[in-house]
Design brief:
It contains 14 helices and 12 strands. The chain is α+β, with helices and mostly antiparallel strands. The longest helix has 25 residues. About 7% of the residues have low confidence.
């Protein structure tokens, strides 16, 4: 034994670097996770929420056959993938192999094998429907520690574009239905001009004989040699419209641009309803991208969050929701429209804007952009890697639920 503070010739305080693998090891994951780690508070909310969905999970599985992956573990793993920006299921399975924090949150012990990525993906896709994602979000918000943080009377709504997993080259003319033989075929009817939201024209315009500049008539198809997966196509002078074209990669995607000067892209439109106290997303929806989806989705989400209520609610929104029909529908639902008024032809008058609560709603409604920004930088909704309206809707809803969970550690600590 070397006395403390006394130097002995030949002795060294350098530690050993021997790397001998242990045959047996006793590791308790619960002890390895710091007591103040944010995931502890998130797990304390997620576990009771999943337990409340036990009956819904049981109804999805057969009574006989080989046991599947536990649905609770599937959903916890899906939340980890969103919260930690893991780009693929294969990388998620790789990190579950060695990341003790992820293993602890998902519910895997130190010795349990990790699932094959394909098996995990197939099981998750069968489980994670829009209905399950909505029920999980509702169960999280109904938790005894989360419910007091919510407002029951004041809400905001907005929408955002979710870029589809389809390229512009997949946007091709729709197949025409076979013509039925008739004695006297009807004359061809002129096709309506495409709207600015659903059509894009490429190329230039040329003056006609009369001197007026008209859009050059272009065929719906362009000559191209359909060989290979990345063929060259001539887009010049072609009119693109959702009425005549569709993506062969994702038929549910729509060509849409958010406003003037914005590029058109194949996308979906996500919608969120936010409560105004702490900015939690209480409802989420995803629809086809068009000029009417925002208002229709807002009505649907209000019906889900407070069905048949006669309490007076408020709804903050931007100018895109300033529509006479939409405002009239809100008033029949006992909802005060705190909507930003257009300069001309607004459906919002001084009877609404004179109250100070309208200005407060207009200030709070901008907080909903934080949910969309988080979902596009941390989450996967900037450009989804899924195809089909139902699958993207479930992903969008789960992303909004994960955003709510990400807010909890700071709010519960306060």
């Amino acid at each position: 034994m070397i006395p403390f503070g006394r130097h002995v010739e030949g002795a060294s305080m350098r530690g050993s670097d021997e790397q001998n693998g242990s045959l047996f090891s006793s590791v308790n994951l619960e002890e390895r996770i710091p007591a103040r780690h944010p995931l502890r508070k998130i797990k304390a909310v997620v576990d009771p929420a999943l337990a409340s969905l036990d009956a819904d999970f049981s109804a999805l599985y057969a009574s006989e056959g080989r046991p599947s992956i536990a649905p609770e573990r599937l959903l916890r793993a899906a939340l980890v993938q969103i919260l930690f920006s893991i780009r693929s299921e294969r990388q998620l399975m790789e990190q579950l192999e060695y990341n003790l924090l992820f293993r602890w949150f998902v519910g895997l012990s130190i010795d349990e094998p990790v699932w094959v990525p394909t098996v995990f993906t197939k099981n998750r896709d069968r489980l994670l429907t829009t209905d399950i994602a909505r029920k999980l979000m509702t169960a999280i918000l109904a938790h005894e520690k989360v419910a007091p943080l919510l407002s029951d009377d004041h809400f905001s709504v907005d929408g955002t574009l979710v870029e589809a997993w389809a390229s512009f080259k997949s946007f091709k003319p729709k197949a025409e239905p076979p013509a039925t033989p008739t004695d006297h075929p009807p004359p061809p009817s002129p096709s309506p001009p495409p709207s600015s939201e659903n059509a894009v024209t490429t190329g230039t315009t040329e003056p006609t004989d009369g001197g007026d500049k008209m859009a050059k008539a272009a065929p719906l198809t362009t000559p191209a040699i359909e060989i290979g997966r990345n063929v060259e196509r001539d887009f010049r002078g072609t009119v693109w419209s959702n009425a005549t074209h569709a993506s062969i990669t994702d038929p549910d995607a729509r060509l849409f641009h958010k406003g003037k000067g914005k590029p058109a892209q194949l996308c979906f439109m996500g919608h969120a309803l936010m409560e105004n106290r702490n900015g939690f997303a209480v409802e989420a929806e995803l629809t086809h991208a068009d000029g009417y989806g925002e208002r229709a989705a807002a009505i649907e989400m209000l019906h889900r969050v407070d069905p048949g209520s006669t309490r007076r609610l408020t709804l903050g929104a931007d100018k895109g929701y300033d529509d006479a029909g939409f405002v009239a529908e809100l008033k029949t639902m006992c909802v005060t429209p705190h909507i930003a008024a257009r300069k001309k032809g607004s459906a919002i008058d001084g009877r609404t804007t004179r109250h100070p609560g309208c200005a407060v709603s207009q200030k709070k409604r901008k907080q909903i952009e934080e949910a969309f920004g988080w979902g596009k930088t941390i989450g996967p909704i900037r450009k989804t890697m899924l195809r089909g309206l139902d699958r993207v809707r479930a992903q969008f809803t789960l992303t909004m639920a994960a955003y709510n969970l990400a807010k909890l550690p700071n709010l519960l600590h306060a």
